[in-house]
Amino acid sequence: MSTPTHMVEMRDVCMQFEEKKVLDGLSLKVAPQERLVILGQSGSGKSTILRLILGTLRPASGSIFFRRHEITRLQRGRLQRVRQHMGMVYQYSALLSSRTVSENVALPLEELTDKSRSEIDKIVDEKLELVGMEDSKDLLPEELSGGMRKRVALARALVLQPELILLDEPSAGLDPVIASVIDELIITLTEKSKVTSITATHEMDSAFRIATRMAMLYQGKIIEEAKPEEFKQSKNPVVAQFLSGSTEGPILEGTLDAITKK
Amino acid sequence: MANARAQPPVLVAQGIGHLTRNFLREVGGVFWFIVNTFQETFERIQKGRVPFRATSFFRHTERAGVDSVPLVGLVSFFLGLTMALLTGYQLQRFGTERLIPGLVAIAFTRELGPLLTGIMLAARIGAAFTAELGTMQVNEEVEAIEAMGIGPLRFLVAPRMLALFFLMPCLSTVSNIAAIFASSLVCKAYFSMAFPYFLDLVKDSLLIRDIITGILKSFMFGLLIAAIACYRGLTVKGGAAGVGTSTTSSVVTAITTVIGFDTLYNIVYTTFYPT
Fold first, then answer.
1. B140 neighbourhood in chain A, CB within 8 Å
2. Which of A72, A98, A187, B243 has a CA positioned 20 to 30 A from the CA of residue A9?
3. Using an 8 Å Cβ cutoff, are A45 and A23 in contact?
4. Distance between CA atoms of residues A186 and B176, nearest Å
C-alpha cells in the first residue's frame, strides 16, 4: 500500500449505521494548508466523515490516513496521541457545561502538556483574545450566545496548535452577520497558524467564503471536487440543483412526489 | 413468521434466552468498562503523569461521602433503633436481652451497614453520576473530550470510581456507629443497660473478622455502584428521555447488583468460615 502524501486521505471508505449505508466507497484527499468544504444534504454523512477522520467512528471498510498514520488501524493510546494534532469544532460547540470559558480552553493544555499554570493562563488569554472572547472568560457556556460558544469552541480547538481543524456546521443556526464573523475568524486563524481545515456545511454563503476547494457528497460518494469558482460552474445536475436550491432535479427525484402527496 | 407459529414453550425459552443474552452482555459490558478504565488510568501513570486532578477526586469524595453522611447516619440510626427495640422485646421474653448489643453490632458491621449504605449510595450518587455523564454524552461533551485526545475513562470515570471505592467503607462505618449508638439508647431506655455494660457486650461479641468482612464488602460495593452508574451514563442513547431511562436503570441495576454480590459474598464466606 502506498504511503499518503496528503494531510488527510480517505480510501474507498464505507460506513453504515445498522441498515442505512451512509458512505459508499468514498475517497478524498486533503492537501496541507487547504480549506476544504464538504457540501451535502442534511444527513448525507458530512459529520460522519469528520468523525471518521478523528477516529471516534470506525468505518466498515476502507482506510483513512492522517499524515502517515492510518487512523483505522491505530490502537487507543496511539490514536489519542494522534488526535492531539487535530482540533474539532462541533455543530453545537460541545463545550463542557460545568466549566467556565477559560477552563474549557485550558482543558487540553492542562491534560496533555506539562505547561505551568501561568503559561496555560497566558496561552488561554491569547487564544480568547484571538476570537474576541477575552471579556467572557469567567462565564459558563450556558451564559453565552450561539456565536460566542462557536468562538470559544474554535479557541479550544486551536489551543494545542493542531495541524488539522475539523469544523462541523460552523455557521449553522447563527444570524448572517455572526455567521460571517465566524467564517472570517476561521479564515484568519487557519491562515495565521497555517492550519489545514475541513468544514462540513450546507450553508452556501459560508461554504464559498471559507473554501479553497469544495467537494460535494451525494449518496455516500464525492461526486464533484473543484475550486469554488469552478464548483459554481459545475455541469453536474446534482451540484447545480444543490447550488440553486431548486426542487426540480435528481436530488429529490422520487422523494418530492412522496412529500407533496403528504 | 416463524415466531407467529411458535408454541408457548418455545416462546418462553426464547424469552429466557433473550434475557440471559442481554444479562450476559451487560455483565460483560460493565466488566470490560472497569478493565478499560484501569488500563487507561495505568497507561497514564506509566507515562509519569497524574491520571486526573486531585480537585476532581476530592469534589466527588465530598459529594459522595461528606454530603451523604446525614442520610446514611439518619437511616442507620432509625434502623438500629427499630432493630434493638423489636428484637429486644422478643429476647426479653427469654431473659436474653443482653444479646441485643451483639446482635445489632454483628448484623450491622457484617451485613446491614455495607448493604444499606450501598443501596443509599446507588440511589443518591449512582443516579447523579449517570445523569451527569448521560447529559454530557447527549451534548457531545464526552466525544469532544475524546476528540481532544483525552481519555474519557480516566478523566471522567476514574475519579468517580476511586471516590466511591474509598468512601464506601467510611460511610459503612458511619452507618455501623449510628446503628450501634441508636441501639445503645434503646438498651438504656427500655432494658436498663448502662452504656459501659453495653459497650462491653459489643466488644465481647464483635470479632475483627466481622469488621474486615464488612469493610471488604464495602470497597467492592463502591466500585460496582460507580462502574454501573458511569457505564450507564456513557452509554446513554436517545436524548433527554434516554438520560431518564438510563438513570432509572442505573439505580435498579446497581441496587440489584449490590444485593446479588452480597449474597454471593456471604455464600462464599460461610463456606470457608461456617461459624
1. 90, 92, 94
2. A187
3. yes
4. 60
User: Angle formed by the axes of helices B113-121 and B208-234, to 10°?
Assistant: 10
Q: Using a CB-CB distance cutoff of 8 angstroms, which residues of chain B are in contact with residue A88? A: 144, 147-148
SS3 A197: strand
Q: How many CA atoms lie within 13 A of B115 on its CB side?
A: 16
ipTM: 0.86
| Segment B142-198, tens digit of pLDDT | 999 999 999 999 999 999 999 999 999 999 999 999 999 999 999 999 999 999 999
Residue type, B120: M
CA-wise closest residue to A47 among A109, A91, A105: A91
**Which residues from chain B sit within 8 angstroms of residue A80, using beta carbons?**
149-151
Question: Do β-strands A69-70 and A61-66 pair in parallel, antiparallel, or remain unpaired?
Answer: antiparallel
How many angstroms separate the CA atoms of A33 and A198, rounded? Answer: 10
State the residue for C-alpha cell 431518564.
Answer: B244
How far is it, in rounded angstroms, from Cα B112 to Cα B273?
19
* Residue B147 CB coordination number (10 Å): 24
Q: How far apart are CA A223 and CA A131, in angstroms?
A: 35
What amino acid occupies position A213?
A: R
